[in-house]
Amino acid sequence: MLKKILGTMLVISLILVSQDHFVLATNDEEKLKETQEQKKEVKQDIKEITAKLESERKELEKVQKEIHEIDKRLSQMNQDLSKNKETIEKKQKKFKEIVKKMYLSGNMQYTNVLLQSTSIDDFFKRFQNVRSLMKNRRRVIDEYVDAARKLESNIKNVEAEKKKLEPLLKKENEEVKKNKALYDKHKKELSKLETHEKITKAKIAEKNRAVARASSGTNYGTGVLKWPTAGGTLTSPFGWRNGRPHEGIDIGNYQGAPIYAADAGTVVLTKSNPGGYGYYVVIDHGNGRKTLYAHMWSYQVKVSVGDRVSKGQRIASVGNNGQSSGPHLHFEVLENGVPKNPMSYVR
C-alpha cells in the first residue's frame, strides 16, 4: 500500500514538472534580469511623467502670464483712477467754492452781471452766458465723475477676471507639485534599482571569479557532457531574454531527483549562497572547462572539494534552496571563466 502511495506521489511530481509554466530560474542572474526589467519600466515611467510635468509647467506658465498681464492692467487702471480722483477733487473743490460764493452773495454776482444789461437782447445774451458758464462747470465735473465711475467698473471687471483665473492657477500648481513628487519617487526608485543592479552584477562577478579561481590543475574530462539529472524538463534556456542574461539552463525536476557529474573531473568548489544559488558545486574537467550545479541543500550534496568524480556519478539531489520558486537544477558550463550554452555540449 505504501509503495502505491509513493508511486502515485512520484507520478504527480513528474506531471507538475512537465508543465510549461513551471519556470524555476530565480538565482542571481534571474534577479539581475528582474532588476533590469524593472529599471526599464521605471525609466519609461520617468519619461512619461517628465513629458506630463513639462506640459503642466507650460500650462502653469501660461496662467501665470495671463495673471501677470491682468496685474499690469490693474496697476495702470489704479494709477489712472488716482489721477482722475485727484483732478475731480480739485474741480469739485473749485465748484464748491463757486457755489458757496453764490450762496453767500445771494447770487448777486450773476445778478449784477444781468443788471448791467443795456437792452433786452443784451440781457438774454448775458443770461445765456451765465447759464452756459454754470452748465460747463457742472458738465466738467460730471464728465470726470462718469470717467471715474467707468474706470472703477473696469477695475472690478478685471479683478473678477483675475479671480476666475485664481482657481486654475491653484489647480495647475497642485498638478505640477503632484507630478514633481511622482517624478522624484520614480527617480528614487531608479536609483535603488541601479544600486541593486550593481550589487547583483558584483555578486555574479564574484561567483564567476570564485569558479575561475577554483582549479584542480588536472585534465579528466572527455569533452562531451552528459545530461546532468535524471530526466527533467528544460524550463529556462541560456542566453539573453528581453535584454537580460541567463548564464546557464534550468531543468525542472522532482524534489530529490539525482544530479550527475556531466563529465569526469575534480570537485573544486562547494559553497552556500542562500540569497541566490542556494548550495552549489563546481567541478573542474580540465582544459579550462568547469560545470556548476545549483539550488541544492548541503545535506543533499554527496561530494567534497578535492573529490575526483567520474562521468555520470551521482553528486547531489535536486533541491529548492536559495532564490528558487520550485525544485530544479541550475546548470552552467564555463570555458576559462566565460559562461557558455550547456546545450552546445550535452550529447
Automatic annotation (TrEMBL):
Keyword Transport applies: no
An annotated Gene Ontology molecular function: metalloendopeptidase activity
Domain M23ase beta-sheet core: residue ranges: 245-342
Cross-referenced InterPro entries: Cell_wall_metabolism_enzyme, Dup_hybrid_motif, M23ase_b-sheet_dom, PcsB_CC
Top-level taxon in the UniProt lineage: Bacteria
Domain Peptidoglycan hydrolase PcsB coiled-coil, first and last residues per copy: 83-153
Keywords tagged on the record: Coiled coil, Signal
SUPFAM superfamilies linked to this entry: Duplicated hybrid motif
Coiled coil: 25-94, 141-189
Protein's name according to its UniProt entry: Peptidoglycan DD-metalloendopeptidase family protein
